Every structure is written in C-alpha cells, then in structure tokens.
Amino acid sequence: SAIGFTSGQVHAVFYDWQQKTLAWSWRDASSWKSPKVIASEGNVGWGNDLATDASGGLHVVTFAGSSGTNPGKVLYLARSGTSWQPPVTLEPSAGAQGPKSGIAVSAGGKIVVSLCDGAGQLKILSGSGTSFGSGQVVDSGLGTSCASDLALDGNGDLQVAYYDSTKKVLKHVGQTSGVFGLPLVLDQSGVVGSYQAIAATPTGSDLWVAYYDFTNLDLRVIRRRAKAWGPPETVDSAGHVGRYVSAALGLEGELHVMHWNEDASALRHTRVCP
What is the pLDDT of residues 34-82, one digit of tens each? Predict the structure, then answer.
C-alpha cells in the first residue's frame, strides 16, 4: 500500500487480495470513501508507490504479477481531476517476485520512476503523461527480486535506496547537481534491504533509509548527514517486524516508519528521533 496527500484529502492505493486488483480510496475531513478498482489486469497491485503533484494529481507505480510464461510488468497510472487514466506499461518484462518501484514528482512537474527490469538493472525513467522513454541504467547485476524506493532531496537531486537480490544487500545511488554517482553498499551484514523506504529532509542532502533485516527479522535504519552515512541501527526488534516498510519525516525531523508485524498480523509504527 501507499499513501499521499492533496489539499484537504488523504489518498491510499492498495492491493485487494480477494479480487487481486489495485484499489484506491480517499478521505476528506469526514470519512474514508468506498474503494474503487483502478487496475485489474493480471494480479495487479503489488509493490505500490504514490506521489502527488502541485495540481492535486495522483501518480502511481505498481506491479502486475507474472502468470505462466508471462513476465511481470511495472505499470504507471495517473489521476487528473476526477478521472483515472488507463495503466501505461513502463517495463514489460520485470522480475517475477513483485518488486516494488519508486515514484516522485519534481518541482517542475516531471514524473520520475525507479524500477528494476527482468535483467536485474535499476533504471530511472522520467517523463510526463504516457511518454517516459527507455530510462537510464544506474546499476546492474541486481537479480530478479530487486526493489527500490526514491526521493527528491532538498537540493532537487534524486536519491534511490534499493535491494541487490544477487548479493542480498541494501544499496544507494544518488545524484549530485543532477548527475548520478556510483552505487554504494549501505548494509551487507546478512540478508538486508529486501523492503526499504527512503526519506529526504526538505533542505540539503540529508537522508534516512528504513529497511528490513531478514537475517534477524528486525527493522533497521541508516542515516546520511553532511553527505556521510552513519552505521546501520536496529530500531525495532519486537518479534518479526520490518516488512512492507514506508517512511516519512515529521515536523521536528523525526522519522516515522510503518511496517508489518508478522507475529501479530498487524501494522506497526516506529518513531525514530533525529
């Protein structure tokens, strides 16, 4: 699932397990509205991300699961005004494991997507409407279960956290003045990073990454300040936690993380002080 905000409204997109479709709901000051199916092809709705633009438009990237000999696909959907547009295929041959992609909208209104293709390449696509092009490859050799999340930092540069499913490590690649640098391994202590979320401060290039530690079944975070990454830190070890992670910064710079508690079959919130 993924959540976003427009003026006076909260929006959520999520996988409907029974119908195997992608659904959307929203609420105003009074209540949540009835969910609406916005994509229904081929077990769609895994690995969602949602971004909003300055005009109140919604932008969603999602995964349509593979079946038989058909590979999975990464899809893009947009809502402008009151209408959802038909899905646009961004990657016709993604991995079979339902990898999550990331999406953001720049200050100039450009839509940016991070995704992994079936060849194990991490790509950055940018565009508007239905035109995105083939994208820029920023890392490769990542396997078929690579997943990613992206954010725009306070300088307007793209920052991507992602899982290398070949080496089973958490990685980061980002821009400086619009130019991507080299990929960096953030944590390689066991199997880490298969679920990840990145959050950027509104000024400068400081970052948080929250992620799943599969080896210990914990939630971890790692932080970048003044362009230097600190050590990984376990912030929640109360049972089997840390999957399906999402993260956002609070008003005082604290990190709020939503993730799944497998033992209790419940959603869990962890607050990390700055």
Answer: 999 999 987 888 889 999 998 999 999 999 876 555 668 899 999 988 8
Q: Are 191 and 214 in contact (CB under 8 A)?
A: yes
Give the Cα separation of 197 and 150 in Å (integer).
8
- Cα 81 to chain centroid distance, Å, stands at 24
pTM of the full structure: 0.93
Q: Please count the CA atoms within 13 angstroms of the CA of 170 that sit on its side-chain side.
A: 30
The residues with which 127 forms a beta bridge, in sequence order, are: 111
Using the CB atoms, write b or e for 189-225: b if 16+ within 10 Å: eebbbbbbbbbbbeeebbbbbbbbbbebebbbbbbbe
Strand partners, 210: 197, 221
Rounded Cα gap, residues 127 and 105, in angstroms: 10
Q: How far is CA 252 from CA 154, 255, 271, 274, in A?
A: 16, 9, 12, 8
The Cα 54–Cα 7 span in angstroms is 10
